[in-house]
Amino acid sequence: MFRTDPFVFKTAQFCKRNFNAVKITLQHLILEMRKVKQGFSRMKKDIGYAVGLNRVKFQSKYTKDNIMESQKLGQVKTDVMKFIPFSVFILIPGLEILLPPFLVIFPNSIPSQFMSNEARAKKLAIISERRDQAAIYLN
User: What does the pLDDT read at residue 7?
Assistant: First the structure.
């Protein structure tokens, strides 16, 4: 009924010895899976918003475009274009190993839905710093 081969006992001993490391690794894996799920749900909402906005624009010929809507639409379009190569890394098993070198070569290639809050804050700080430098240079 139960397995009694040495492999099972070695695996059980390994798990007992490294319980905390295995637990932390599993927690990290679950956290990353939640982030990917959240990114996909954000992507779905953004694409739905863009499709609805395009439908409204197509049906109403005589209304002016809202600046915020056009900026959001442009952001969604760039995110969809960024998602195409990013999805290759997600769909092909084992290709996640090559994701860090890809992000080093192309640092802006990750869609905004999959960025962490720290990365967003860092990017916003860099943009505001560059704006301040441009304002000083222009004045």
Answer: 65
Q: Which of 69, 66, 79 is nearest to 49 (CA)?
A: 69
Does 60 reside within a domain?
A: yes
How does 34-52 read in b/e, with b if 16+ C-beta sit within 10 Å?
eeeeebeeebeebeeebee
Is residue 116 a part of any domain in this protein? yes
**Domain range enclosing 52:** 6-138
For the chain, what is the domain count? 1
Sites in the chain below the pLDDT cut of 50: none
Cβ-based neighbours of 98, under 8 Å, separated by 6 or more: 89
In a domain, 1, yes or no: no
pTM, whole model, 2 decimals?
A: 0.62
